[in-house]
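Why aldehyde oxygenase (deformylating)? Reviewers of the renewal asked for a concrete example.
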Amino acid sequence: MLPYSTVGEAEAALGRGLTGAELVWLRYSAGIPDYLLFCHNILFLFVIFTLVPLPLVLAELRWPSLVARYKIQPKVRHPPASFLRCYVDVVKIFFFVVGPLQLVSYPSVKLVGIRTGLPLPSLWEMVAQLAVYFLIEDYGNYWIHRWLHGKWGYEKIHKIHHEYTAPIGFAAPYAHWAEVLILGIPSFVGPALVPGHMITFWLWIVLRQVEAIDTHSGYDLPLSPTKYIPFYGGAEYHDYHHYVGGQSQSNFASIFTYCDYIYGTDKGYRYQKAYLAKLKEHGDENGQLNNLKSE
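Here is what the prediction returned.
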């Protein structure tokens, strides 16, 4: 909770006038305990998970012809019951695992120094911290994900996530409860090492969830802004990981592609890309290309 409740008190403490964003933050958070501010994460996760996948889900179910050309595995059609089952299963994990974990993890947030007060961070500070969070999470996630594709990790834990060989947005967090907990560790390491403001932490949680939904969407959309992010894997990249499935040793990266390239775990994907490029060069894009994607 902020140590001041009026604009005058806040400006006196800072020794300057408040910015527009700081004024909004003061009015919203002055009377809210830090614990409740932290618990906003639960609401953000639920809303993002529910709403972000919906446009493509509805398009696939109601107007498939509008998006069929962008579907990475065009011959795979999930029935409505499959979408509903996935959503319900993830919501159960959310209420029985993710939510309770958020409720009890507040002491660790305070311990590492994530703050709620004024001044607010600058835009560049937030961008720099978020970049660090993404890089740290991506590296940690790579090795945990790679371990989960070993015999024991896959059979006991990770195979649930791979039930969707043609992934959908709702399946981004569809996994064994233990996997949800384990893969949550890299997401917190960045904020723990480079603590920032609670708003930055909120934004990190939201962006990471949106990214996971994007890479599991099953669609390679041509106007996606993520195509302009260097080394970003995207839906096509991660779809290959689900397509080959099982204990595959390909495309473990959650966000970027540099770990797979450095450690040689993208060779199958690059071989397929080169092969498809040859087919396209010979004018067979509409025939064999779609067959390779979906068979």
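The mean pLDDT is 91. This is the kind of structural detail the renewal will allow us to pursue systematically.
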